[in-house]
Amino acid sequence: MSAFTVGYFVGSLSSTSINRKLAKALVKLAPEGLALREIPIRDLPLYSQDYDADYPPPARALKQAIGEVDAVLFVTPEYNRSVPAGLKNAIDVGSRPYGKSAWDRKPAAVISVSPGAIGGFGANHHLRQSFVFLNMPALQQPEAYIGGAEGLFDQKSNLTQESTRKFLLSFLNAFAGWIGTKLGAS
Ligand code: FNR
Asked: Buried (b) or exposed (e) across 127-150, using 16+ Cβ within 10 A?
């Protein structure tokens, strides 16, 4: 299989983020055909339409980073049943100026992660709603709502459960296949 580069976004800015732990576990788990690298969102300015005339350097860097990867993966918590503001801001920054969205036709996938039982379903699907408008072909199955996430890691942030490891590996393999389909490779 061809090697694809996937830019991943962590929707949490917390220094103790379980989403970041999960993203790091994904980097270790990734099959040969996928190279995962983070696209940071922490330093982005809050989007304003005033920027469209002359995008600030961190916003340009975000768009360039999206342009350089084959696909994008969102690993995100749910805030108040929706997408955390920092991640939504990154979506908005990447989408403008109008007609120059960095997201257009970029294959995407989402994993939502929560200590709660619902596994961030609301954030996951609000993100998918943006994918539709942004013309991002999104992996449909398997869906990834990772609940009870605080119990998934040991003190060194390694995954403790074989079933989770297996599921995440199957998710990454499905995503690799999806990217291949969308980019016309195999
Ligand atoms: C939360 N949390 C949360 N959890 C959830 O399952 N559904 C929700 O709607 C919310 N809402 C919410 C709002 C805000 C402002 C905060 C700070 C937290 C709890 C959240 O899942 C928990 O703090 C996770 O640990 C956040 O992920 P990270 O930062 O650890 O990756």
From this structure: bbebbeebebbbbeeebbbbbebe
